[in-house]
Write a structure and sequence with these properties.
280 residues, alpha+beta, Jelly Rolls, Arc Repressor Mutant, subunit A, nine-stranded mixed beta sheet, 23% strand
Length: 280
């Protein structure tokens, strides 16, 4: 097992798996596990791997950023990335990541697109088991069977609600960045800005703005902003903060409005999500 502990840093840091190609070349099985612990707020620079990858946080909320979008996942979900996909990471709280690197040939029957998958209790244990194995250790029948079962567990439909589609249009990308980060400039309150506010800021009509945003993301402005707010609120729920406080910080006027939106998005009320903590 390779376990790394990244230092706290205000700036993005390089990927810590520099020796991965050599590790995989020497690995006797098509799946390699790596463990890494990251402090809250740390960002990992954009990078890519020659193999497919499953990113899974056993603790904390992990944000994965790629050209096609962003995935924000709690400990019950993992992000599957195809080989060669450039991506960066952001830790929403202290995060313990367990990554699986899967040989492209072995991944032929696995998801053909980047997506979020559900991590069942069985898959969680399989991931943890593989991440504990010493690098290049000769595998026995048990190890081969574990890998075979793990690959079978990865063959499941993607989970959509944890994905934020990211536009290629630079103007709409700037809007999405400001919304996702609640980042304003020049006194512009991005977190509370309406579509009309954004349209005026971009010097276009409101209907034109709505049309461009929908074309760029595949979602309406209102739906995209709502999903971004709900995804951003997950870390606070896992930390045990009062739901009323989380709801207000997410831009909702009441506990009930936030709970209804959360249930519609994730299939459970925020109280149940918070109670589950880091357990799948």
């Amino acid at each position: 097992m390779r376990t790394t502990h990244a230092p706290a840093s205000a700036a993005a840091v390089p990927c810590s798996h520099a020796g991965l190609p050599e590790l995989q070349a020497a690995a006797p099985l098509p799946v390699t596990g790596v463990a890494a612990d990251y402090p809250a707020g740390l960002e990992v620079e954009e990078h890519s791997h020659e193999c497919c990858q499953l990113l899974y946080a056993v603790q904390g909320v992990l944000e994965v950023r790629a050209g096609s979008g962003r995935w924000v996942v709690p400990p019950t979900r993992g992000v599957w990335l195809r080989s060669g996909v450039p991506h960066g990471l952001r830790m929403r709280g202290a995060v313990q990541v367990r990554s699986l690197f899967v040989d492209a040939q072995a991944a032929a029957d696995l998801p053909g697109s980047d997506c979020v998958i559900e991590v069942s209790p069985l898959l969680r244990e399989l991931i943890s088991e593989v991440a504990r194995w010493p690098a290049s250790a000769p595998p026995g029948r048990r190890e081969s069977m574990v890998v075979e079962l793990l690959l079978q567990e990865l063959r499941q439909p993607p989970v959509v609600p944890f994905h934020l589609p990211w536009p290629q249009d630079t103007r709409m990308a700037a809007v999405c960045h400001a919304l996702a980060e609640a980042d304003g400039a020049d006194g512009f309150a991005a977190a509370t800005a309406t579509a009309a506010d954004w349209a005026a800021r971009l010097a276009m009509g409101e209907k034109t703005f709505h049309r461009h945003f929908l074309q760029a993301t595949g979602m309406s402005f209102g739906r995209w902003r709502q999903r971004a707010r709900l995804l951003s609120s997950m870390q606070a729920l896992l930390a045990g903060r009062p739901i009323v406080q989380v709801a207000l910080e997410a831009g909702y006027e009441s506990h009930s409005a936030y709970s209804l939106a959360f249930r519609r998005q994730f299939g459970m009320p925020p109280s149940a999500f918070g109670a589950r903590g880091d357990r799948p």
